[in-house]
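Lecture 7 notes: from sequence to structure.

We start with a single chain of 295 residues. Read the sequence below before looking at the structure.
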Amino acid sequence: MSQIAKCRAGTRQPTSTHALLAAATVFISKTRLGLTSSALAPCDEMAQLHLFMGRQWLHAKRAIVNLRKGQAVGKIVKEITVAAKLGGADQAANARLFAAVEKARKQSVTRDVIERAIKKGAGIGDDRLVLEHVVFEGYAPHKVPVIVEVMTDNIQRTAPEIRVLFKRGVLGAANSNKFLFEHVGLVEAHHPETTIDLEAAAIEAGANEFEPLTHHQNDDIPEGHAGVRFLTDRTAVHSISTWLSSHGWSVVTSEIGYVAKMFPELDDTQRAEVGEFLQSLEDNDDVHRVWAAVK
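Now the structure, written as tokens:
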């Protein structure tokens, strides 16, 4: 019986083949280099190595989570800056800015960071921000139409990055697929009463259409709350957001965006490939919004 088999028989070891092979490789390397402890039996040494590897994976996993959280916070801060640039620094008169600030507070973004982002976007003080809004159009894998909105201070840097990301899809020319989307106002909100009449709320707020929204679809919608996405005229976003806020709703999104008119049929494998492609776009620091014809 091999040393690995003996250790698996006598001690609790990971069932993963990759983990077992990795442990064996490290154990053999340490043995060759004379780094194993003479006081430890081989199985004890391997157990320590497995424990070390488990801790290493735990640290790596935490690092990934922290990186994702940092990217998310960065996107939120940039959204505050963009909202202030487009609609001014007054949250009472800028529903998009108000929603962005609320998201930032939920992510424990400090007040100083929020205020700096608002001033930067609104052009208050010396730290003014010059951002260019650029729209890229194309297709994800399996011919899924995609519109990517970019806010960048250096389009010469951003454009090549977007072209590289689209190598797995197709990057089109301007206005190559916008006709496949409706350019509308989007307001997403939630209410603590799950039995609230969504249609009545949409009519009273002045929305054109509405659809229920769950926590799974938007994690800003708390579980156990009634969530809804209102589709509006682009000029009505602020007024509808204001009405909702004054009638017990919490607005989490208030912006102008693109909604696909049709959605290609995808199986689970294709959907996963499209999701990976869209996530790679989202991970780019200059990408502000990704709109895709996928449900």
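Residues 42-87 form the longest helix (46 residues). Keep this in mind for problem set 3.
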